[in-house]
């Protein structure tokens, strides 16, 4: 980074020993190490803050693209009747007093194969409602 070679490092050590002295050299090196550690922490904190801002900006951009694509898909695809309730569907049907007082009749007995047929009819009705092709034979 600073491109300090071996000869330059040796010159710095000799000057430091002459200026600081051999007795105070360990304390000076500890102090220099602490300062370097603080500078590294600050630079890492700064770098992580910048990275977080970049990630947030990228996420916002991706969310905007996804929202635009979703809107385009929703406009292009037909709306299903069950997915888009109208105001008429929201209102409760008007019920007269006699209908409330009379209980519903119980399910009438039918043949054994009736549940299978009713399930098939429900499936076909659901497929027609969703505009799906019939299942393969």
From TrEMBL:
<dbReference type="InterPro" id="IPR018448">
    <property type="entry name" value="TatB"/>
</dbReference>
<feature type="compositionally biased region" description="Basic and acidic residues">
    <location>
        <begin position="114"/>
        <end position="129"/>
    </location>
</feature>
<protein>
    <recommendedName>
        <fullName>Sec-independent protein translocase protein TatB</fullName>
    </recommendedName>
</protein>
<keyword id="KW-0811">Translocation</keyword>
<dbReference type="InterPro" id="IPR003369">
    <property type="entry name" value="TatA/B/E"/>
</dbReference>
<keyword id="KW-0813">Transport</keyword>
<dbReference type="GO" id="GO:0033281">
    <property type="term" value="C:TAT protein transport complex"/>
</dbReference>
<feature type="transmembrane region" description="Helical">
    <location>
        <begin position="6"/>
        <end position="22"/>
    </location>
</feature>
<keyword id="KW-0812">Transmembrane</keyword>
<keyword id="KW-0472">Membrane</keyword>
<feature type="region of interest" description="Disordered">
    <location>
        <begin position="77"/>
        <end position="137"/>
    </location>
</feature>
<dbReference type="GO" id="GO:0008320">
    <property type="term" value="F:protein transmembrane transporter activity"/>
</dbReference>
<comment type="similarity">
    <text>Belongs to the TatB family.</text>
</comment>
<dbReference type="Pfam" id="PF02416">
    <property type="entry name" value="TatA_B_E"/>
</dbReference>
<keyword id="KW-0653">Protein transport</keyword>
<dbReference type="GO" id="GO:0043953">
    <property type="term" value="P:protein transport by the Tat complex"/>
</dbReference>
<keyword id="KW-1003">Cell membrane</keyword>
<keyword id="KW-1133">Transmembrane helix</keyword>
<comment type="function">
    <text>Part of the twin-arginine translocation (Tat) system that transports large folded proteins containing a characteristic twin-arginine motif in their signal peptide across membranes. Together with TatC, TatB is part of a receptor directly interacting with Tat signal peptides. TatB may form an oligomeric binding site that transiently accommodates folded Tat precursor proteins before their translocation.</text>
</comment>
<comment type="subunit">
    <text>The Tat system comprises two distinct complexes: a TatABC complex, containing multiple copies of TatA, TatB and TatC subunits, and a separate TatA complex, containing only TatA subunits. Substrates initially bind to the TatABC complex, which probably triggers association of the separate TatA complex to form the active translocon.</text>
</comment>
